[in-house]
Amino acid sequence: MFDPFIASLLYILTTVAFFVYYYKLIIMPTVKDPTKKISKMKTIFFYVAYFAAIIGIQLESNISAYNNKCAGQGFEKFLEIFGATIKANMIVFLPLILLLVAVKQLAYPFSYTFGSFFCGGDMMEFRKEIREQKVYDRWASKITTCIDIIDTLPGEFHKEFIEGKAGEDQNTNKIYQILCRIVMSKRIVANCVWFILVGIYAIMKSRFLTMRIECNGATQVIQPDPPVDQPPAETLNT
Questions:
Q1: 223 pLDDT above the threshold of 50
Q2: CA angle, 173 then 30 then 124, to 5°
Q3: Measured between alpha carbons, how far is residue 140 from residues 127, 136, 145, 146 in Å?
Q4: CA distance from start to end of the chain
Q5: pLDDT tier, 218 (very low <50, low <70, confident <90, very high otherwise)
Q6: In whole angstroms, what is the distance from residue 186 CA to residue 111 CA?
Q7: 56 pLDDT higher than 50
Q8: How is the chain split into domains, by residue range?
Q9: Within 13 A of 197's CA, how many CA atoms are on the CB side?
Q10: What distances in angstroms separate CA 37 from CA 26, 63, 110, 167, 169, one per listed residue?
């Protein structure tokens, strides 16, 4: 049985694992080979598995809380608790997903902060490639940290140095791949942070909606008050 703290912790771990594997198995293959398209079925499978896992975590926690409130009636009210959990997640996650897709700037605050913490290795590789390929020195002089690599930079590099060139270089340019990798990793980290923050709210929301469900008959088992000590009866002298 999960209390809210354990449910939140499990949710955070599940969310981090989801985005790590999503980046490795969905995003990275397209970065290495830009001609390769993202598999829609694989993407759908990842999201379905993720939401099934987090709803399962919340459901376990909510049933436990309802059992405490209504003297073990959690499984009797399973469908209502399940509906409340689904409703809370739809209210919270659906607007977030739509906003992240429609308004890419929403990810910028976390992309520029948390996202920049995880691109140190890629930045070292980027600087090494720039040193080896002197032709890009002037263009790369404006890039000093991960924060300088914004979403539009790979497109600018592609247009200036790759677009219109014939041959294999269009798909295998090392610097272009590194830029794409940094941008996508920052975006994944930003989305992960958003999902964690909003998901914790979803856990609290689903718990709130669950606890509003009325019990059948008796509610929580009420312990009787302890007996009050009675003063000793006075003895009458005859």
A1: no
A2: 50
A3: 9, 6, 11, 12
A4: 65
A5: low
A6: 5
A7: yes
A8: 4-211
A9: 9
A10: 10, 41, 27, 20, 18
